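**User:** You know discrete backbone vocabularies at least as well as I do. Would you mind producing a protein record, from residues through to fold? Write it directly below this note and I will take it from there.

**Assistant:**
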Amino acid sequence: MIPAGQCQYILQYLARSSIYQQVESYCFDPSFGHEVSFRQWRHCNSACRSERECYVASLKVEPTRRLYTTTSDRSPSRRDRSPERRSRGRGSIRHLIALVDLDPRLDNPRMEAGEDLQPIFLRDKYRKTHMGTSLKQDDREAISKTLTKNVDLFALTVADMLGVKSDVITHHLSVYKEAGLIAQKKIKLGEERRKAARVETDKLVQAGFIQKVRYTTWLANVVMVKKSNGKWRICVDYTDLNKACPKDSYPLPTIDRLVDGAVGHQILSFLDAYSGYNQIHMHYHDREKTAFRTYSDNFFYEVMLFDLKIVGATYQRLMDYVFHDMIGRNVEVYVDNIVVKLDSCEQHISDLKEVFQALRKYRMRLNPEKCAFGVEGGKFLGFMFTNRGIEANPEKCKAITERRSPNGLKEIQRLIGRLTSLSRFVPKLVERTRPIIKLLKKTTKFEWTDECEQNFLQLKAFLASPPVI
């Protein structure tokens, strides 16, 4: 018989050893009210602990760990070497991987120039960028000369992408302490998806983005999505991992302030980072949490990827850190949307040099195909702006002017949502749409009246030629 006072310490010792597999110990547990064997106590206590952890994990518990690191607190041992050092030997293979195979943002461009562009070749015919046609010949040559001197900042392949140093920033996953380790049940993939997953993972391995892993704690499944061009994109179902991570409340810039700050300038330049999120490395202790399985092997990410929850806040931190003394003065940044603004070409060239110097300092690289230099206007954060002011996005106006009259509650909701995105261009929008908004009330039976039709036609006529703010 084991005394009740020593029961807890003996059970902890036995749990760490293999003695309980051979010896049947007995103790008195107040929760049972009688003597129980160690095996019975251990099984019931584990079940209660699992139920308690599931309950606590469902609560909004604030974590105590930091969400991102700025300095390295580990010794530079061989195991803790940064990914950029460990991937130097793969350079001969990584040059085969192009951005178009890895960056999911290319299907939906976020920034576009508002005028015709001409190609500018940097060093060779393969590395080219774009420049506005409205510039004078002397200004065009001056900007082209500046770009040629900084050709090392434009990445053509993954091998040209060095990545931000780990002592500057890494993506840290702050998981709730009470969250359990979840390994998703393996799902079946068709033969076509299985082959596509193998091809895409081989590309990521060659690029140095992922690495094989043997012993996993978290484990997710891959989801193959077919793109519009018929090719496959590999995604990872990080639903469980994202639920276990709290939201990062890092303040993002106000879109209206950014648009108002970028409008009204004579010369603009749009910059796009080369696979921007992948230039930030995962924290060393959090890489294995991104583990995912395929039919061939298990892998984890060495770089930050798009599927995780708080990657936008991490990237905004980096942008605020890199351009801290330029934001609002000559640069506007929203996550990975960068605009360089100024009124004269001479000052614009000087500001471009300052931006290039900051990018080189933190080893960031640009995608030349998605950059546009020396333009008068373009699309930024869904708004069309020039040196005259802010213009309504023609695509958003076209979605309303070519729309038929709604015939149901769902279509009314879609119409109101699209009109709200253009609210700054439609004066007194609430008064103009009051008869239509009344149809959203649940107590009102849907009936598209002549008054609603007349208001809808007036909105169409107004948005056919919206004003410039």
Observations:
- The first strand starts at residue 26 and ends at 29.
- The chain is about 35% helix and 15% strand.
- The longest helix spans residues 38-57.
- Residues 397 and 465 are 9 Å apart (CA to CA).
